[in-house]
User: Fold this.
Amino acid sequence: MKCSIINTKKNNYLKLEFKDKLYKFSPTWLIENSKDLSIRDKQTNQLLIEAAELKLSLRIDAFNIKNNNLIISFNNNTVHNFNIKDLLAPKKHPNKKLWNGSLKKIPSFNFKKFNNKMLKNILSTVDEYGFCLIKNMPTTKNGIHALTKHIGPIKETNWGSIADIKNIKKAYDLTMTERALENHTDNPYRFPTQGYICLHCIKNSDIGGENTLVDGFNIAKQIKIKSIETFNVLKNFKTFFQYKDKDTLLENYCSLIETDYEDNVVQIRYNNRTEIIPYDDLKKITEYTEARQCFWNLIKKKSNNITIKQTSGDMIIMDNYRILHGRAKYKDLNNQRYFRQGYIDRDILQSKLKIMQA
Ligand SMILES: [Fe+2]
Assistant:
């Protein structure tokens, strides 16, 4: 490892070279990242100083390396210690296993054997595959809670907490009919959109009613490989989603593919039933409708779909930022099909997973 201070009229920074990688640390960045007790609270890891008030004339005067520590003196007469490993730590990317219709084994768990270790495995699996199936959950009305009480609260929406999915006469959503449901993500008209869906089967219909699942991150990857222009249109065009009833009006402008600053896909959306394409420049609309058609063709493609027919006590947990789900139409002479659905916010499940993995 090579370390030096670069000092010019315009620049002052610490230069570290390690394994063919070059790192440049500014003095203010270093102070903000110092673990010194005057800078950051030991218990909460929160900043004690007002970082925006650090003098922009701050400079690095000298450094010294002792074992794994870098001791740096600054021109404000302070000295801070840094663990070199912490400075060079690469950014961790979540482990995502992309899949398509040839996924050999549905990731499943038997709730009868539930314990803390299984909970950790369930959450890690949802993070890696975007979903998992949990068998032998209680078939009581609020049986979802048997698992979710170990994760965190169910998200309350305008429909309440855990909602019925049943064929009813006065359906306020097409889920409450015997109609097939095309693959979609839930509620893109909400901001933020609910992170995870727990879909609990109390009783299924004898004929039809199978669920389809699609890995939206894999679809986005397929598009990116096929045409970066199409990917960019889906990333950049802000479409519009809306839900409306007599008491509620939910609206959100957003794109079908959301990426982070490194262009990693972090969320996909697709919901034909609630999209209202906004007015825009003719060229933009043409590009978007073409790109959306390409997206949809991959979403409905059989080789990208898996099918699960849930039986009593089966619950699917899925990542609503990644997995598209649909349902085959069903015939239910005795009106016995009864599913229940609850949402969990993204940060609630992710927090539980991170604490369990720490
Ligand atoms: Fe849905």
In short: The first helix runs from residue 27 to 32. The first strand starts at residue 2 and ends at 7. The pocket of fe (ii) ion is lined by residues 184, 186, 325 (CB under 6 Å). The two ends are 29 Å apart (CA to CA).
